[in-house]
Specification:
Two copies of one chain form a homodimer.
Chain A (H helix, E strand, L loop, with lengths): L3 H13 L8 H12 L5 H12 L8 H22 L3 E2 L2 E2 L1 H4 L2 H21 L5 H26 L6 H26 L4 H28 L2 H4 L5 H4 L5 H9 L2 H10 L8 H14 L1 H22 L8 H11 L4
Antiparallel strand pairs in A: 1-2
Helix pairs in contact in A: 1-3, 2-6, 3-4, 3-8, 4-6, 4-7, 4-8, 7-8, 8-9, 9-15, 12-13
Chain lengths: 324, 324
Amino acid sequence: MYTFKDLAQKVSQYFAAEVFDGTPHNLYEPIDYTLADGGKRIRPILMLAATDLFGADIETARYGAVGIETFHNFTLLHDDLMDQSPIRRGKPTVYRKWSPNTAILSGDAMNILAWRYFLKTPHPRLHEILQVFEKTSMEICEGQQYDMDFEQRNDVRISEYMEMIRLKTAVLLGCALKIGALYGNATDGDIELIYNFGIKLGLAFQLRDDLLDAYGDVNTFGKQTGTDIRDNKKTYLLIHAIDKASESQRNRLLQLFSTTPENADNKVREVLDIYNDLGIRQDLEYEIADIHNDAIRSLDSISQPDERKNTLREIANMLLNRNV
Amino acid sequence: MYTFKDLAQKVSQYFAAEVFDGTPHNLYEPIDYTLADGGKRIRPILMLAATDLFGADIETARYGAVGIETFHNFTLLHDDLMDQSPIRRGKPTVYRKWSPNTAILSGDAMNILAWRYFLKTPHPRLHEILQVFEKTSMEICEGQQYDMDFEQRNDVRISEYMEMIRLKTAVLLGCALKIGALYGNATDGDIELIYNFGIKLGLAFQLRDDLLDAYGDVNTFGKQTGTDIRDNKKTYLLIHAIDKASESQRNRLLQLFSTTPENADNKVREVLDIYNDLGIRQDLEYEIADIHNDAIRSLDSISQPDERKNTLREIANMLLNRNV
């Protein structure tokens, strides 16, 4: 069995072996820029862990792992352009460093490149693997569209928000694990369980992100807190607060979330005061714990010896117990 | 054997059976808008013709045909945004009718949707088919990047231009025919021949387009002539003229191609005068005829009875003998 650290090293080696120095340079340099410096690479690590769980050689999943991370980075590249985000992983985003057209085209190429990687490894279940990848890719586009749609709406319901983050974030974790399990030739039942583990992990992870953005310690979380409030982003916290608020609190929240003051410190403080008044933080912490437990129950039910599940358990804890 | 008209009808029926009414609507409506109204649909028709040539049931290629046309329309959608083209097939382009973000995301979804279609039909040679499709998709991105790069350069050579149009236009015709032949389980030799037929057809088609833009009859060609000259586009005509020109003609051409006058009639007339002086039109017509002959030689060499090749011959003539 490989530990998380082993798998992270493997993924690093896999990417170090891939070279993106083709021509035309203006197409390939942004791809190299995006893929070279990493990020957490959680998705390929999950894929390898799943393949390992079911007792197959993790090298079977090598190119699938590179493929899913390449796809993930394509979505970030295009999302950054659509959201006009200037910085990613401490560096200028591609559309800023080059141009919007470069971001569009090199993103398109990375989307295609992901398929190249998946096609590199013949496998008896390759057709299934590709269908899972295709379905997931499409769902992620749907999630991004819902996210953009929600920016224009003031009546988003919690169920709609949960479906949006399922599509935008959770399905790719589920997909990584499911494909890893397919490489490992798991049974249909185990494949469903590991997919559910991934979905729940993804939901809990995203909700944790919402929580940390409002309540995280800037030193451990690594980014400024309150940015969702500053940017008027509709997160679980806001939607739930609006549901639970008195009429005057609701009106005040809607008013605050329609302004973008130069100095937003007072706005952030006032929003957090309302959240605290309503007990929003505790509600969300319970919700995250529920979903996390559901994830762990699915992992527990997989028909493999318990000690083989340590790495996935470790990753789940890592993702969900970042400091608040 | 199916005639061109039969195949065009089949492709129409195939698309009529596909419904793009999913949610979120803001993602799927632009896809429906783009795919519903057609265009010439040459690529799926070529694919079906190739499958038919090798004696297989054209229904085998049904979803591949829908897939390749979906991919082609994805590239047009993103190209229109990158080139800021306001009109496509007489209608506003997606980024104009909706927004740049909608064009990016619905294009991404169409790129993925193309794979969904290819995955719909299991086939003993599906892995090969997908690899041809992936390689071609990547080449088309490279072609588009070269095209954008060339806009910034004044020293593009004919060989570079030919490579650009090979990547941007010709490989997708070659790919359509090659995949059709794979569905038809053709021999490796025949697959290479039909691919070369497609590449040469694509090159001749694009060069014909360059020629018609400068010399076409607006009534038969269907679009305004001289637009490449107005837009300072580097086509075969200009690059070849610069190669062949005297120093004073070259300087004048470069000067004319660095201006965008409100009324460009005089500019167009002066450029055409220089082309005519240098015999550029005749040179290009010879070049097209050469490439066309090369295409036909490849078609002739395919190890199938001559009468089975009538439909592909018909399409080749249709594409290349549009009125000047």
